[in-house]
Amino acid sequence: MLERRPTLDAEDADRSYVYMIDWRGRSMTDAAGVSEAVAAAGVSTTTIDFMQAGRREGAGVLPDGKTKSSVIQIKDEMRSNVWLPRTAFLRALSSGLRTAEAAGRVSLLHNTEAADIRLGAAPAPGPASPSSPAASRPAITVTATDITTGASRTFAPRLLVGADGMNSAVRAALERHEEEERGAGAAAAAGAGGEGRFRPVVLDSPAAGLRFRVLQLPPNAPFRRPPPGGGSGGEEAGRLENGRFGKVVGVRAPRLRALALGLLPLRDPAAPRSANIIVPPEHEVWAQTSGEALRDFLQASFPQLDIGALMTPQQLAAAATSRGGVFPRPQYLRHFTAVVPQPQPHAAEPAASPAAASGVVLLGDAVHCFPPDLGQGVNSSLADAVALVKALDAAGGDLAAGLPAFEAAAAPEAAALAELMTFSYPYQYNQDPVARAFWTANFLMRMLLNKVAPWAFEPHSFLLVQQPIPYVEALRRAHATTQRMWALAAALAAVAAAFLVRAAMGVPPS
């Protein structure tokens, strides 16, 4: 395993977000024997218990500091999810890795990245020698570099797994190999047509393009609130408790100046708290490029917080200079495996067995990536790993059979999940209040219809994704409910029209 960071749980201010591990993720943690470690490091919830607030209904801790508690039933209360910081999750996984390393089954190389990947290399010219028969020459070679020393090592894996993100170097190697296989002319034609076996299908989403920045707050961050009874006896300190969801709402302002902070729960009451700012790229917060400017902007936005006391000058400067991250457009691959046959031997050598073929497979964000609307980035990636292992086990380790079987099962899931991301919950960031109001009405209508006629109408897709069903099935049910809602609307419109016509004609109601 090649890992660029010095340790698995190395801190990264721009990645200090909180994961939600659901039943899909638990399928992998169960298989790896780390589910207890994950649960011990996180907060298990069946509902979203928000620290709510004051003058604006449904908002968080407001500028006047007034607060109340509220439980939001916007998830499937029958299923418990675990919320924990990314570093805590990786630390829990590392316990399983250490066991595998001690058994000699895994070698984890830190500060290391793949510098060069070659697929399907032809045998060297000339006669083979007994010490280097052509049939033993690798179909896959990976040159890895230690980024601290510059030292290089070369590997010849039988199976190369690319779990290296949306800008995957392994996927790029697959594209190069495809072009070499088809020839320069065919590759140019494919490039002109925008086609290619390993090129992603890119969709659109109202959340795509939003930028996020993570602020580090102290544990149980205090905020100012008025004393009981609204007297003038000074301000009391409320606290954004680590173990609860929280939202801090800024002062009323134009859309490109208004801010809110979202906080996800932590188990450790003494751990620093991450607060997320998610806004359009043209928002004024991105123009604050010094620590002092960012402090003043945040203080003007959040009078209920003492920004200078909550964040050090060094933290403010680091946050101001960080460009944060950008939510990608939903995208997926139709193909993400390749069987690479062994190089053809010389005539004097026996042919390699088809079962000896090498293979390449992509997992996780290298196959499908999208905004974090549904909390499925990490869970779908973990589910990929489980599905790959099952396919290879079923094929008895034969990559030529196991990899195509994995792709056949996982490709429809990747496509369905990417499509779900385009409409399921993209307005939660309040980037478009009008569209969010329509989304909320749609959500409530589906929930009402499901209560009245569950045999005909499914819950909202946000809840369907949490059920133990494939993404393909969640998408099918969501679309089927949409069609029935339109049919119901048409029927009601027809009845209303008939009633109006009869009334206009003076026909009494029957």
TrEMBL record:
Domain FAD-binding residues, every copy = 356-394
Cite the entry's keywords alphabetically: FAD, Flavoprotein, Membrane, Monooxygenase, NADP, Oxidoreductase, Transmembrane, Transmembrane helix
* Recorded GO MF terms: FAD binding; kynurenine 3-monooxygenase activity
Membrane-spanning residues:
485-505
Q: Does the keyword Mitochondrion apply?
A: no
Q: Name one Pfam family in it.
A: FAD_binding_3
Q: Where is the composition biased (Pro residues)?
A: 219-229
Secretion signal span: none
Could you provide one GO biological process annotation from this protein's UniProt record? Answer: kynurenine metabolic process
List cofactor names only. FAD
User: Where is region (Disordered) located?
Assistant: 218-240
- Highest taxon of the source? Eukaryota
PANTHER family, sorted: KYNURENINE 3-MONOOXYGENASE
Name this polypeptide is given = FAD-binding domain-containing protein
Lineage of origin: Eukaryota, Viridiplantae, Chlorophyta, core chlorophytes, Chlorophyceae
